[in-house]
Design a protein that fits this description.
The protein has 456 residues and is α/β, with parallel strands linked by helices. It contains 18 helices and 15 strands. The strands form 4 sheets. Strands 1-4-5-15-10-11-14 form a 7-stranded mixed β-sheet, with helices on both faces. The protein is globular. The N and C termini lie far apart (62 Å). Bound molecules: pyridoxal-5'-phosphate. Pyridoxal-5'-phosphate binds next to helix 6, helix 12 and helix 16.
């Protein structure tokens, strides 16, 4: 067998500090069809940025509805903090390719190297920064699996803000180390639903043993932000300004793919609310809009147990259980959706962001649903071939990539596949433990169940 040289097999691609992007990409300004407007939950009126100020900091509110500026400057201080862990590596997955015996070239963007272990920090930093700039002293949020809560707790600490995190009760109980990690960063963590808010009390009165959901935790965090002076709510996914911040991933990847001398035929990401998907896909999608790379495919991988894109309904829906958030035009399973207790906690949200929902409707992207066992099979193979134990969420992107790579093996096509590795799974070893001991099962919703959840 002939050995290839090191030059020919360069595996990791990095950017120098000066090459790290200075602006985020605002896809809203270039979408052929803009998302439909957000609506006031009480009056049904179209919401303006000022209407979001009671909940979010002002700059994030403006970014949320900015449909004119294609590029938005990354503040100097935020970019400096990015440089502490960015650029993240773009890696050619030779080990995985070889194991699959595929002619496809597989690349992944490794966001697991951030100090908190996931891509979430890319948005936590600017959100905390803008709050600080605006004189906010306290931030509040919800967290499911705990990745967002961890990222926000750290970013809040860096900028001298107090953080209060509502963690979905079942995760709070099942993932004590996640809770501890947020506490290490100085956050106050409360299991949701709790008796500390009206929303929490109402939910517990109706359902005393409620296990909590992102919907209940969001209601509580929003209520706290609204009723506490100098306190703002922050969100780690779904919203357009979060995807905006995450475009740092795709903007870097675009330059790194250039270093690798290739361009992706398919961009693949797991899908919770859409922020990492948008983060890696939107910067490439601008070349699809312009006609330069018309054929690129964008694939969102979601859990079969929470299939908002593949089986949900496009409609105006609330972002939370109690109906405090603006009404958003999105693919949804209904805001009272109670997901099965699957392990990809970060993918259990009931809805998709308004940008991705519009892009889905317009056929610019596609979605694939993956069962839990297939995702862990994929995660195991990835760990054994690339040496990184992936987060259960990321395993969905890996599973989708493997499916595409196997199709290439059938057809002989030499496609270039790029997926986003959103996080490592070091805090999720109990899920791997269940998988290894044979205690994980697949869970697919019936049509009747989906219909029932939508009509709750
Ligand atoms: C939160 C999270 C996700 C899903 O969120 P998106 O907004 O859809 O990107 C995926 N992977 C990890 C590791 C996460 O923490």
């Amino acid at each position: 067998m002939q050995e290839t040289t090191n030059e020919m097999r360069q595996k990791r691609f990095f950017l120098t500090e000066s090459e790290i992007p200075e602006r985020w990409y605002n896809i809203q300004a270039e979408m052929p069809n803009k998302p439909m407007p957000l609506k006031n939950p009480q009056t049904g009126e179209v919401m303006k940025a000022e209407d979001l100020f009671p909940i979010f900091c002002e700059e994030c509110s403006r970014q949320e509805l900015n449909r004119t500026d294609i590029w938005i400057d990354i503040p100097e201080k935020v970019r400096e903090m990015y440089t502490f862990y960015r650029s993240t590596p773009l890696v050619r997955a030779y080990g995985l390719e070889q194991a699959l015996d595929t002619p496809a070239h597989i690349y992944f963007k490794n966001e697991s190297v951030s100090p908190v272990g996931s891509h979430k920090l890319n948005s936590a930093i600017p959100q905390a920064y803008y709050c600080k700039q605006e004189g906010v002293t306290n931030v509040t949020t919800e967290t499911g699996a705990g990745q967002w809560g961890t990222a926000l707790s750290y970013a809040a600490k860096v900028f001298g803000l107090e953080a209060a995190v509502y963690q979905v009760k079942i995760s709070y109980e099942q993932k004590p180390y996640r809770r501890n990690m947020m506490q290490v960063f100085g956050a106050q963590v409360t299991p949701s639903p709790s008796m500390s808010t009206r929303a929490g009390k109402d939910i517990l009165t109706a359902t005393p043993n409620h296990q909590g959901s992102l919907g209940t935790a969001i209601s509580e965090a929003v209520e706290l932000a609204r009723t506490t002076p100098n306190c703002k709510y922050t969100l780690g996914s779904v919203l357009s300004h979060v995807s905006l911040h995450q475009t740092i991933i795709g903007l870097e990847a675009e330059k790194q793919m250039e270093l690798a001398g290739e361009y992706p035929d398919e961009v693949i990401a797991c899908f919770g609310g859409g922020s990492n998907f948008g983060g890696i896909a939107f910067p490439f999608m601008r070349h699809t809009f312009s006609g330069l790379h018309k054929e690129t495919r964008y694939i969102a991988a979601e859990p079969a147990s929470c299939p908002k894109l593949t089986r949900g309904r496009f409609m105006y829906d609330y972002g939370d259980e109690a109906g405090y958030t603006p009404m958003m035009p999105m693919f949804s399973l209904g805001h009272k959706f109670a997901p099965a207790n699957i392990h990809a906690g970060g993918l259990r949200y009931h809805g998709a962001g308004v940008i991705v929902s519009q892009l889905m409707k317009d056929g610019y992207m596609e979605a694939m649903d993956v069962n839990q066992l297939e995702t862990f099979d994929a995660g195991m193979l990835f760990a054994q071939t690339e040496g990184i134990v992936p987060a259960p969420e990321s395993c969905h992107a890996i599973a989708a990539t493997i499916r595409r790579a196997m199709e290439c093996r059938e057809s002989g096509e030499k496609k270039v596949l790029l997926f986003n590795l959103t996080g490592h799974g070091f805090m999720d070893m109990s899920a791997y433990n269940q998988y290894l001991s044979g205690n994980l099962t697949n869970y697919t919703l019936t049509d009747e169940e989906i219909e029932r959840q939508l009509n709750k």
